[in-house]
Amino acid sequence: MSKINQLQEIIDSSDNIIFFGGAGVSTESGIPDFRSESGIFKSLEKYGDTPENLVSHSYYLDHTEEFFNYYKENLVFKDAEPNPAHLKLAELEKVGKLKAVITQNIDGLHQKAGSKEVLELHGSIHRNYCQICNKDYGLDYILKSEGIPRCDCGGIIKPDVVLYEEPLNNAILNFAVDYISQADTLIIGGTSLVVYPAAGLINYFNGKNLVLINKSETPYDNLATLVINDAIGETLGQIKVQ
Q1: Which of 66, 86, 167, 241 fits as disulfide partner to 82, beta carbons 3.0 to 4.6 Å?
Q2: What are residue 17's phi and psi, to 5 degrees?
Q3: Per residue in 226-235, pLDDT tens?
Q4: How far apart are CA 48 and CA 234, in angstroms?
Q5: Which region, left, alpha or beta, applies to residue 178 given φ > 0 means left and ψ of -120 to 50 means alpha?
Q6: Active site residue 57
């Protein structure tokens, strides 16, 4: 039996699926991942700094204008569209099989595809807030701002994304743990499962089927019911939703 047929059988026999995804979910939408040869980390060599530093809380505080220049040029892909992975997950949610998407991505493509229950571990480029008065701003305001985006009150408008040195949102983490611990099937896609604490969420899964879909190997392949080393959009695009 082919791996696609195995995946189809697992999905058909499940009624409480959780999907946990990383940067690889959006590469087929034209958004680069971080660690591959064509990823964001590689392209940042021209900045003469490490990407971890450029998107750190310290750098944001000490070099705010440079942070926004880098952020808008390298982390915002406003015109990106959902690919077959995003669309299929939204379909699975609509028929009641998929209960939630947990994502490390900040691009908002799951919602754009129609998914309703999306837990964004690292925040979203589409939410921005004044650090003084908490007024909300959309992405367009950030993109159109020259230099440091500022609120009417004078405060700096910070993207609602989790930077290095910043903690994840505990409430969202707890929701993710609840969903994963109750799932009968956990599908993990487009992530190398090496970034913590997000990667540690897999340890809360007690269900029947663990499916790993990633182009490269992960440290958890030996624990999986099914491992597919292929592009996730191409893989999920072949699944029929009953």
Answers
A1: 86
A2: -95, 135
A3: 999 999 999 9
A4: 35
A5: alpha
A6: no
- Which residue in 70, 59, 75 sits closest to 23, CA to CA? 75
Largest separation between any pair of C-alpha atoms in the chain: 62
Distance CA(235)–CA(237), nearest Å, equals: 5
Considering the candidates 57, 63, 110, 122, report the single residue annotated as catalytic.
122
- 3-31+80-122+167-236: which CATH number, 3.40.1080.20, 3.40.50.450, 2.30.30.100, 3.40.50.1220? 3.40.50.1220
Q: Look at the pTM and tell me if it is higher than 0.85.
A: yes
3-state DSSP call for residue 210? Answer: strand
Smallest CA-to-CA distance from 120 within 77, 184, 52, 168 is with 168
Model pLDDT for residues 3-55, shown as the tens digit of each residue = 999 999 999 999 999 999 999 999 999 998 765 444 455 555 555 567 778 88
Sequence spans of domains, the chain: 3-31+80-122+167-236, 41-74
CB atoms within 10 A of CB 200: 12
Hunting for tokens 């700094």 — which residue is that?
49
179-197 residue pLDDT tens: 999 999 999 999 988 877 7
d(C-alpha 163, C-alpha 122), whole Å: 8
pLDDT by residue (tens digit) across 73-117? 889 999 999 999 999 999 999 999 999 999 999 999 999 999 999
Whole-angstrom Cα distance, residue 18 to residue 208?
A: 12
Q: Please report which residue ranges of the chain form alpha helices under DSSP H.
A: 3-12, 40-43, 51-54, 57-62, 64-74, 84-94, 109-113, 139-144, 170-182, 232-236
